[in-house]
Each structure stands twice: as C-alpha cells, then as structure tokens.
Amino acid sequence: MSHPTLIRAAEAEVLSDAPGSLIALLADSGATGNQFTANRATLDEGVFGTPAHFHTRATEFFYVLGGALQVLAGDELHTLETGDFLAVPPTVPHAFGPAAGSAADVLVVFTPGMDRFGYYRLLDRVARGEADPKEIAASAEQYDNHYVDSPRWRQARADAAA
C-alpha cells in the first residue's frame, strides 16, 4: 500500500445480514493494496451472529469498540469486553455474536486483504430475499469463508438467547 486509506463514516456502505445486524464496509483489499480488509459489525442484543467458519488464507482480528462479544475460537469460548482484542489465525474455526444481555460493536480486520465486500453484499441480498441462501455455500472458495458444524457454538448461542 503506497497511500493512506481513509474512509469517512458517512461514506461507508452499510448492509444487514439479519435483523439487528449491521455491517459497515470500511476498506476492501482493492483499496489497501491487498494488505487488509476491514468492516465494522454492529450487533443488537439477541442477534445470533455468525455460524462457525474458518478462513484458509487470512487472520481475522476482532477489536471490541463497545458492548460485549462472545467468540468461539477453536474449541474455546471467550467473552470480549470493550477494548479487548482477539486474533484468529487461518484454519481455526471461529464464530461471534453479542454476549448474553449485551449488544456489540466490533472492528473486524482481515490480513492479508481479500475481496470480501461481495460476500457481505451477498449476505445482505439473502437477508432481503433477493438471493438464494445456496449461493453462500457456493461462494466458499471465492470469499475464503468455509462453514463448519459446531454443536458448542449452537449451544452457546441458545444459552445467550435464553
């Protein structure tokens, strides 16, 4: 990257992959010379969050801006509070959602950068009924987003919703 990347909050595209779940697109790999990809996830209390998944090429970083975030990383559950940071390396299954009784506001960064904004736009179209959910599974290689089954995560989210 040979120049600074500046994205003004008012200019960020904001999508929704589920009611109460917003994704502000900050910087995709094309704008950062493939160095990183960044978004801001705002999750209302009670939102499920993401299913368990992994990436083969990128490390995913989570920095909690506000609230509390429950994260599955490998087989361990963590509750991250405001100011906490977590890095999940490639191939480690992970998932995240707001902790029980809390909303969460999170900066999410991937490095190296990869074109992910198309993936978030697909999630938004599926949530609005404009795309078939099967397209998400079909895009796994393109967006390096590989879903896995995690009974532990499903139970953790059921407990958080109770």
* Overall pLDDT confidence: 96
- In the CATH scheme, what's the topology name? Jelly Rolls
The appropriate CATH architecture is Sandwich
Helix content estimate:
10-25%
User: Uncertain regions: pLDDT < 50 for 5+ in a row?
Assistant: none
Largest sheet: 8 strands, antiparallel
Instruction: Describe the oligomeric state of these chains in a short phrase.
Output: single chain
Task: Explain the overall architecture.
This protein has one domain (14-157): Jelly Rolls. Helix content is 19%, strand content 38%. The protein contains four helices and ten strands, in the order βββββββββαααβα. It has helices at residues 117-127, 134-138, 140-143, 151-161, and strands spanning 13-18, 21-27, 37-43, 53-54, 59-73, 76-81, 85-88, 94-98, 104-111, 146-147. A hairpin with a 2-residue loop joins strand 1 (13-18) and strand 2 (21-27). The longest helix has 11 residues, at 117-127. The chain is globular and about 45 Å long. The N and C termini lie far apart (46 Å).
